[in-house]
Amino acid sequence: MKKVIKNIFYIALEICMIFSIIYIFKYCYDIYSTKKQSNLLNDISIDDIASENNENSENTENIENSKTDVIEEVKTERMLKVEKLKEENSEIVGWVEIENTNINYPVLQAADNSYYLTHNYQKKYSKSGAIFLDKDYVWTPPSSNLLMYGHDRLLKDIIKYKDKGFYDKHPNIRFTTNEEDANYEIIAAFYSRVYYTSEKNVFRYYYFVNAKNEKEYNEFVQNAKKASRYDTGKTAKYGDQLITLSTCSYHTKDGRFAVVARKSL
Hints:
This protein is 36% helix and 20% strand. By secondary structure, the protein is of the alpha+beta class. The chain has a domain at 92-265: Sortase (Sortase, Chain: A). Helix 4 (57-65) crosses helix 5. The radius of gyration is 22 Å and the shape is globular.
């Protein structure tokens, strides 16, 4: 009897080891896949794009003239690369980056706000998911707030904005589409959480995508500034395009951390 129990124990142990190895393999592959996303733009050759779009004289001219206009080169190349990336997945709407951080990823938009919680930019299953834009954001005319979500494995660096010293070194967010390459100045960074429906007079920043009127817009900005851990010295006025990055935070149950920025003039 003891021998039978011993054999069962060893079999159970072996099964546990097999599942552990599988889990570790999947975890490591997910990290590798996530890291690979951040290099996508670098992997795209601007020379290949130029040759493929040789008939597009405007794009070719911009690239050739870039030798005398460095800023135009960066903007033009980046926009063209995003456009090229969209060929792989039409739901890629842009690229978000905070310089000198780990935030450097494609942004996707689906018909719901759940798909890219568990899928990457290639629509393959991934625990890390992807950074995605709220489904309710409308591009034409543009909604008030580019509300983006992502797991902390992708957006964990925004939690570093809890310290003003980090903000001082990283005051901007860059968001590029195939139509525009824009810089956003951070106006607020704050802890929050997902509130119960019964809770009143709370700041549900995660519902704000498009302002119905000037009052609603100003209330969002004021609440964000009020919740912010420090004053950035920046604010936004009605009509300014906003961008909000939101991720999970474990300071409380259903915790969140968010950074709000306005498009630079």
